[in-house]
Amino acid sequence: MAQTEKFVLNMGPQHPSTHGVLQVQVELDGENIVGAKPVMGYLHRGIEKLMESRTYQQCVPFTDRLDYVSAMNNNLGFCMAVEKLAGIEVPERAWYIRTICCELNRIASHHVFIGSLTNDLGSATGMIYAFRDREKILDLFNIICGARMTCHYIRIGGVAADAQDEFFQKTEEFINYVPEMLDEYNRLFTGNEIFQRRMQGTSIISREDALRFGMSGPNIRASGLSYDIRKLDKYGIYGKLDFEVPIGENGDNWDRYLIRIREIEESARIIRQCLDNMPGGAFKGKVPKVLKPPKGDAYQRVENTRGELGFYIVSDGTAKPYRVHIRRPSFINLQALDHMCRGMVLADSVTAFATIDPLMGEVDC
Amino acid sequence: MWGKGLVAGLRVTWRHFFGKKETVYYPEEKLPMTERFRGGHLVLDVEKCKACTLCAINCPNEALKLRVEVDEDKKRHIAAYVHDIGRCMYCDLCLEGCNFGALKWDKNYEGASYFKEDFIYDAVEEAKNRRNEDE
């Protein structure tokens, strides 16, 4: 009797749908996936090690290169960890500006998610629409800090420079544009039947599995668990702000997409509140030029776009950190890929990969 | 009805097909860079520079190689200010470290080149060339 053999297909590291340099060894039985093994390390730059030979201030631009589509949130995580370690006070105005920047960056990052997801599903049009709107946010970053992606704007003790009136005005214009933008996305993607058929009921992650894999961010929220560090820890000024945490029901690809659309709305709400209540005062606290935190260690977690981003820093009392470890959400979320792909057809692996939304800069670090 | 969503989506794309253009016709048309834009070559003001080398000390990637000369009055002068763009992260820490406002970016974003040598330049030489051009 004729027998079929399993076949291993290498997807990546040069593959348009792997969003960077990830290799996935897909084990196939016909067109059905029996296993998907991610092979990482193609973008490893040793950032944790590089930080050990730099001063605390010099470490901050390296965090831009972790999750490079959400650089502000990375800056924030590292700076907060150092502030915790050295006991630095951050002025309130700086917190408001930081929050605006982080939430803008969250929207920009979700634009990349929508763009790459639609592109992976075969609609290059979607990518152009999402990137058109992301450009508006990158222009805002260009105004406030002079860079579009690798911002290096949030610094230890505050922010690099005060936000200008032009920035606030243009941010408000963007926030006013958000409902129109989402309406267009809903007409273009959410209502699209092909889009729905491809995503509904595929690559389901149950609540228990999501916890078992240690997932975080929109991926775990799509599985029905309300886990948002902004709400849990209420770091910065998030405790004062009124916003909701969108939660999914089924944990399928569709929920992971919808969560992000709803998160854009919530981020816009947060920015609006920050703009309305912007206090005056200094934009940076008192930070010594040569920063030598006392001996000890600190762990600080923040809600990055992709999940729980944590920085663990050990200080030996010198101007350079003794050890830095980064808990990268993309790396941990990617563990679920094999589970998501099993039983699906090959074309669905691309969708599963896109909805985890990993970023290779962060996976490999 | 199946296909209703597809038609709604097509309506969006058709509206944009006849709508306003979102892009500019580069390189004929160029977007202006912002006041705080970080990019291009470093413009060194040799008169303002006190050769304290704080910029090079602040650099996380050792992208700046400076040569300082001391004259007979024990005054420091900058003799060479070599900036290696290949190592530069454009983090702005050099500009922020300067207490005399001697540095700024030339805001040129068209920095691509075929040759590695093009990414290493001397800002003191460029300052001299600018002065010669002005004269």
Give the number of DSSP strands of chain A.
8
Largest sheet of chain A: 3 strands, antiparallel
- N/C terminus separation of chain B: 75 Å
Helix content of chain B: 25-40%
Q: What would you call the shape of chain B?
A: elongated
| pLDDT averaged residue by residue of chain A | 90
List segments of chain B where confidence is low: pLDDT < 50 over at least 5 consecutive residues: none
What does the model show?
The complex is a heterodimer of chains A (365) and B (135). Chain A is of the alpha+beta class and 365 residues long. Chain A is built from 15 helices and 8 strands. In chain A, the strands form 3 sheets. A 3-stranded antiparallel sheet of chain A has the order 1-2-3. A 3-stranded antiparallel sheet of chain A has the order 6-7-8. In chain A, a hairpin with a 5-residue loop joins strand 7 (307-315) and strand 8 (321-327). In chain A, helix 3 packs antiparallel against helix 4. Chain B has helices at residues 4-17, 54-58, 93-97, 123-134; strands at 42-44, 64-70, 76-84, 103-105, 120-122. In chain B, strands 2-3-5 form a 3-stranded antiparallel sheet. Classes of the chains: A alpha+beta (365), B alpha+beta (135). The A-B interface holds A 54, 57-62, 64, 125, 132, 142-147, 150, 152, 160-161, 184, 187-189, 191-196 and B 2-6, 8-9, 11-13, 22, 33-39, 58, 60, 89-93, 96, 105.
Question: What are the defining features of this structure?
Answer:
heterodimer; A: 365 residues; alpha+beta; 3-stranded antiparallel β-sheet; 49% helix; 13% strand; B: 135 residues; two-stranded antiparallel sheet; 27% helix; elongated
Task: Outline the fold blueprint.
The complex is a heterodimer of chains A (365) and B (135).
Chain A: E1 7-11, E2 23-29, E3 32-39, H1 47-52, H2 56-64, H3 71-86, H4 92-120, H5 124-145, E4 154-155, E5 158-159, H6 165-190, H7 193-199, H8 207-212, H9 218-222, H10 229-232, H11 253-276, E6 296-304, E7 307-315, E8 321-327, H12 329-333, H13 337-341, H14 346-356, H15 360-364
Antiparallel strand pairs in A: 1-2, 2-3, 4-5, 6-7, 7-8
Helix pairs in contact in A: 2-3, 3-4, 4-5, 4-11, 4-14, 5-6, 6-11
Chain B: H1 4-17, E1 42-44, H2 54-58, E2 64-70, E3 76-84, H3 93-97, E4 103-105, E5 120-122, H4 123-134
Antiparallel strand pairs in B: 1-4, 2-3, 3-5
